[in-house]
Specification:
It contains 8 helices and 11 strands. By secondary structure, the protein is α/β, with parallel strands linked by helices. The protein has 2 domains: 119 residues, 3-Layer(aba) Sandwich (Rossmann fold), CATH 3.40.50; 106 residues, no CATH class. The strands form 2 sheets. It has a 6-stranded antiparallel beta sheet. A 5-stranded parallel beta sheet has the order 2-1-3-4-5, sandwiched between helices. The longest helix has 24 residues.
Length: 245
């Protein structure tokens, strides 16, 4: 069985500039749906059933809190996680108590690169959760590397102590990593195996990934833990970037 895990993200803000900044930060995270006010957002939430709603707290007519309560009141949308875009004062005074179903807060004003980093962390976690739900039925699931990179997968699979095969494809190139309880035990990419195979594909951002929960292996070529591979891989990437500069 193969299934896509693309996220549907509903962005809600009455300010077109803010909507544009959010879209810029989330352009690789999934399918984006925009709404200019709470009423429009409620209709779209019912229609498309997004995986995540990112809503401004202060909007005319129907603010973010009213939208949250109306979405929570409907059985078909009650489980959709929210991210609120709000000032620190609004978060401290009005939103801290709303913890059930609130994934996170984006604090205004913000820098685009910080917003992108925070958004990527949230969407990566949601993709992992969606993937795990699909994986309970066995077989393979797939998605795009632009949505979930190798480093994202290594961190998520380690935290979840998953046993599976992670297959990466970029054009004609293929790399397969095998995990046992979250630890990379074997990797193969062309003539490279083990740690070196992992390092060769860390920079892949274009292509696809596939997770297969039915492909065990008896080979053990990795010499470092998953965390060790991540740290060494990041060091090598930094070194390459310095040399290129």
């Amino acid at each position: 069985m193969t299934a896509a895990t693309t996220l549907k993200i509903l962005i809600v803000d009455d300010n077109p500039t803010t909507r544009r900044l959010l879209a810029q930060s989330l352009e690789k995270a999934g399918e984006l749906i925009a709404a200019s006010d709470g009423a429009d957002a409620l209709m779209k939430a019912i229609e498309v059933r997004p995986d995540l709603i990112i809503a401004d707290y202060s909007m005319p007519v129907m603010d973010g809190r009213a939208l949250f309560e109306k979405v929570r009141a409907r059985n078909e949308t009650a489980e959709i996680p929210f991210v609120f875009l709000a000032s620190q004062k609004e978060i401290d005074e009005r939103l801290r108590m709303m913890v059930d179903g609130v994934e996170d807060f984006f604090v205004k004003p913000f820098f685009v690169h910080e917003l992108a980093k925070q958004a990527r962390r949230i969407t990566a976690r949601l993709i992992q959760q969606k993937t795990e739900m699909m994986g309970t039925h066995g077989g393979a699931i797939s998605g795009r590397l632009s949505e979930m990179s190798l480093l994202d997968w290594m961190q998520s699979l380690e935290q979840g102590r998953k046993t599976c095969a992670l297959i990466l494809r970029s054009g004609p190139e293929v790399c397969t990593l095998f995990f046992r309880e979250g630890q990379v035990i074997h990797a193969a990419y062309g003539n490279e195996v083990g740690d070196q195979a992992v390092y060769k594909v860390l920079t892949w951002t274009d292509g696809e990934w596939e997770v297969d929960f039915t492909r065990p292996t008896t080979e053990h070529t990795a010499t470092m833990s998953t965390q060790g591979l991540i740290m060494e891989g990041l060091r090598l990437l930094d070194e390459a970037n310095r040399d290129a500069g």
